[in-house]
Amino acid sequence: DLQICQHRAPTCCTKKMEESYQAAVRRERTQSIQALNFELKYMIVGHITAFQEAFESLLRFAENRTSSLFETAYRPMAKEAAEPVKELFTDISLYILGAETTVESAVLRFFDSLFPLVYSRLINPGITDLSEDYTECLRLTRQDINPFGHYSKNMVTELSKSLWASRMLSQALSLGIEVINTTEHAALTKECSRALVKMQYCPHCQGLTLIRPCVGYCLNVMRGCLASVSELDAQWREYISTLEYLTNEMAASHDLEIALSGIWNSINEAILHAQLNGPQLSATVDKVCGQPKQQEGNLSSANIVPAKEVAETQTFVMAHTSLNSKRREFINYMKRSRTFYASIAERLCDGDLVMRDSSTCWNGEDVV
User: Fold this and answer.
1) Phi and psi dihedrals of 19, rounded to 5?
2) For 74-98, what is each residue's pLDDT tens digit?
3) Rounded Cα–Cα distance for residues 246 and 268 (Å)
4) N or C: which end of the chain has fewer CB within 10 A?
5) Domain boundaries in the chain?
6) Which InterPro entries match (predicted)?
7) DSSP 3-state assignment of 115?
8) Are 142 and 288 in contact (CB under 8 A)?
9) Residue 63: how many other CB atoms lie within 10 Å
């Protein structure tokens, strides 16, 4: 009553044993594919972690630099500016990780929060009444009177270019893991599991436990079994090319490191621009929001202190170098995996599964 291992000679197998063999080949094939996938998956997961650590390091550096700008050059508003600065960098981090947000909304939200502080602490440092209504009026007025000139828009443009490639790379790496996980659990067809039993276990039914399949026979069976997986070949090659393009974009003109390290300078220029246009801004704000209460003997404007470069260059250079070397190492490894899905049958038939250095092997019917 055998269905798969039918043979003219006497046999020691039963139908129940054939069913056990089918369960065994399914389990073994999943384990074999998982073993093949392990190195590739390990590299991608490792690089996702490494990229995230490097991004976080650069973001922390840029955030510290921006905070130092307020503490050294704009001390009157440093304490109150801490929260908007923190929010800006949290939004940037979430954007890189793929959150449903935009660079433009993050930057403009920051400048909306910044304007009431610049207006009440630097342009009119004698204001004592900063009610919620007055603060909200200043926030809304920012969008109409554009106190920060072209600097806020320039910051959006610069960051959008560089962060886009980082965001796409982050999403692409996650997609790679998803593809590999899916192929690991691709179900074997009934025909495939029967073919695998015939190849691996039918010799056992005749007591030939040491005979292994012929190489050509193994390749034919594996290619048939993995036809759906190897069809991913063209898309996988295209995926590797896309990763290469994104890493080149990150390293080229849309340099993430340069854009992040330049945030403090853009903010500084924006604040200086607002201070220099203080009288005109005050006149417009008074018309729209009314005149707030002032302390006696108020100076019309705070002293303008140009910010000096903050000395944290060493940290930044290390993070920058680390990110660049990780990109190169990662993309070189991924380029070597271009043929991963095209050669999956060959690699499964490699090693102990087939007979390579002997004159006898199993061809599915007999020993040859």
Assistant:
1) -65, -40
2) 998 999 999 999 999 999 999 988 8
3) 31
4) N
5) 15-291+312-349
6) Glypican, Glypican_CS
7) helix
8) no
9) 20
